Known about the structure:
By secondary structure, this protein is mainly α. It has 3 helices and 2 strands; from the N terminus they run ααβαβ.
Amino acid sequence: MRKNVQLKVKVKVKEEYNNFRAAVEISCEPFVRKHVRRIFMDNATVSTSPTADGNVDIDSHHQFAEIKWFFSPQ
């Protein structure tokens, strides 16, 4: 009975490894990468808000003053 359990575990690990390898190979295809990148860029949002220290340190002359509070439109 112990061998049967070990065999099932080995088969499961091998299946997961094969799935991982297939996913890696598919992700290397230029068309797939382009498609995923386009979906990501169409749906990505960026926003920033300063920390307590940032509120004190970032004034109107600071290099990050323009992006102290930034919310991308969505």
